[in-house]
From TrEMBL:
<feature type="compositionally biased region" description="Basic and acidic residues">
    <location>
        <begin position="396"/>
        <end position="414"/>
    </location>
</feature>
<feature type="domain" description="Mono-/di-acylglycerol lipase N-terminal">
    <location>
        <begin position="7"/>
        <end position="71"/>
    </location>
</feature>
<protein>
    <submittedName>
        <fullName>Uncharacterized protein LOC111314626</fullName>
    </submittedName>
</protein>
<dbReference type="InterPro" id="IPR005592">
    <property type="entry name" value="Mono/diacylglycerol_lipase_N"/>
</dbReference>
<feature type="domain" description="Fungal lipase-type">
    <location>
        <begin position="106"/>
        <end position="242"/>
    </location>
</feature>
<dbReference type="Pfam" id="PF03893">
    <property type="entry name" value="Lipase3_N"/>
</dbReference>
<feature type="region of interest" description="Disordered">
    <location>
        <begin position="389"/>
        <end position="421"/>
    </location>
</feature>
<dbReference type="InterPro" id="IPR002921">
    <property type="entry name" value="Fungal_lipase-type"/>
</dbReference>
<dbReference type="GO" id="GO:0016787">
    <property type="term" value="F:hydrolase activity"/>
</dbReference>
<keyword id="KW-0378">Hydrolase</keyword>
<dbReference type="GO" id="GO:0016042">
    <property type="term" value="P:lipid catabolic process"/>
</dbReference>
<dbReference type="Pfam" id="PF01764">
    <property type="entry name" value="Lipase_3"/>
</dbReference>
<feature type="signal peptide">
    <location>
        <begin position="1"/>
        <end position="21"/>
    </location>
</feature>
<keyword id="KW-0732">Signal</keyword>
<dbReference type="InterPro" id="IPR029058">
    <property type="entry name" value="AB_hydrolase_fold"/>
</dbReference>
């Protein structure tokens, strides 16, 4: 009798301890050890958020829901706007914007539309471990959407980049559902830069706002030098390891689902999560905007922390009233603008060395952080993780193969015939007996398993 009572008390105390830790866990705990971002590296974020938010407008000359201060865009520089009717459900709406002031070509993709069945079909087109790509796993439906978009717009982007003197940055941005498309679009382009006129990797950037979990951990770390994820405080989507297709099946009972996921993940060891190659994560380097603290009422002046986390990469659901509201791009743009303004004010007050020296030091720090993250992934035995040296050799090999493919072709042929990104996928994939696409260099690994 006494033994059973003791066991009951142990179970009760264990449940109380778990409940206390979960209820007191706040979004700022995820990044409490991260360093603060600098205004130079965070400067594009509010601007990219405004361009992405502009996709939701039907007429930029007469906007219905402009952010504070307006969109600050030149409507004449919007080169193309694509709606649901034009995409036929293959991709979310997007626009192509040439920012001649900042020398950027921006492809901005909107987020999930709860009223559009095509967006749900895009999310549901996936199963756990269904799609391999570049040595990792990705969301099948989002990859298909990215390939479709590139198939439609690659010639436009190539021509635009060449007409602007090959000096502009190529920026891919998206919110929520669009962030996953933008991230995978970036990965495909980086592996085939010759298809966009030979644009170098250093001129390609991706900003995933309120990012969806769309790629395995080794890919998320591998592309952290060009993909940047922006998370506002308690946003549920980057933290929910449950597949996207299951989340949005239960969108109208989301709090219940998040609680059950939180309960389930409590009993899953961290090592088991890291060793599962099919588990998807938010991509790239993380920028966490923090504006609330535990047991403190109201919002505080936001600060931005940044890192390339490997273990503990937004793995814990935050049981918060703001878990869904922090996902809205309107709030993200507003808080990002406030944070940037605060960072600039602090920088002007504490500047002691010339800005060029500061930029150079920060650039070296960013490169070192990426190298350390790659080595950390290898040390944790994450499937398919590679070191910095291996990444450079793969990059050089890809560029050599691209040069060999392009050298024999006359200019007239390459200019008269559009790039077919389906051919790019066929180069990377082979079809299994069931008809699914499997990346060629991973076939041996799958057969061994």
């Amino acid at each position: 009798m006494s033994v059973s009572c003791g066991v009951e008390w142990v179970v009760v105390l264990g449940c109380l301890r778990w409940a206390w830790k979960r209820c007191t866990y706040v979004g700022s705990d995820d990044s409490k050890t991260w360093p603060l971002a600098t205004p130079d590296e965070f400067e594009p974020v509010p601007r990219v958020c405004r361009i992405t938010l502009a996709v939701y407008e039907t007429d930029l000359r007469n906007p219905q829901f402009p952010p504070e201060g307006g969109y600050r865009l030149n409507p004449d520089w919007v080169l193309k706007r694509v709606t649901y009717e034009q995409t036929n459900g293959c991709a979310p709406p997007y626009l192509i914007y040439a920012d001649h002031d900042m020398k950027e070509i921006v492809v901005a993709i909107r987020g999930l539309n709860l009223a559009k069945e095509s967006d749900y079909k895009l999310l549901l087109n996936n199963r756990l471990g269904m799609q391999m790509f570049d040595g990792g796993y990705v969301h099948h439906g989002l990859l298909e959407s990215a390939v479709w978009l590139l198939n439609e717009e690659s010639e436009t982007l190539r021509r635009l980049w060449e007409e602007t003197g090959r000096e502009y940055q190529m920026i891919f941005a998206g919110h929520s559902l669009g962030s996953g498309v933008a991230a995978l679009l970036t990965v495909v382009v980086v592996n085939h830069t010759h298809r966009l006129g030979g644009i170098p990797r250093s001129k390609i950037r991706c900003y995933a706002v309120a990012p969806a979990r769309c790629m395995s951990l080794n890919l998320a770390v591998k592309y952290a030098d060009i993909i940047h994820s922006i998370v506002l405080q308690d946003d549920f989507l980057p933290r929910t390891a449950t597949p996207l297709e299951d989340i949005f099946k239960s969108i109208f009972c989301l709090p219940c689902l998040l609680f059950l996921v939180c309960l389930r993940d409590t009993f899953v060891p961290e090592g088991r999560k890291l060793r599962d190659p099919r588990r998807l994560y938010a991509p790239g380097r993380m920028y966490h905007i923090v504006e609330r603290k535990f047991c403190r009422c109201g919002r505080f002046p936001p600060e931005v922390r940044t890192a390339i986390p490997v273990d503990e990469r937004f793995e814990h659901i935050v049981l918060s009233f703001n878990a869904t509201s922090d996902h809205g791009i309107v709030w993200i743009e507003r808080e990002a603008e406030k944070a940037l303004k605060i960072m600039r004010e602090k920088k002007s007050e504490t500047m002691t060395v010339p800005p060029k020296i500061q930029k150079l030091e920060r650039l070296q720090t960013i490169k070192k952080e990426h190298k350390d993250a790659l080595e950390r992934a290898v040390s944790l035995n994450i499937p398919h993780a590679i070191t910095t040296g291996e990444q450079l050799s793969v990059k050089e090999g890809t560029e050599t193969q691209a040069h060999k493919r392009d050298t024999p072709k006359p200019k007239a042929e390459s200019s008269s015939r559009g790039t077919n990104w389906d051919e790019v996928v066929e180069e990377l994939f082979t079809r299994s007996n069931s008809g699914n696409l499997i990346v060629k260099k991973d076939l041996d690994t799958l057969q061994i398993q």
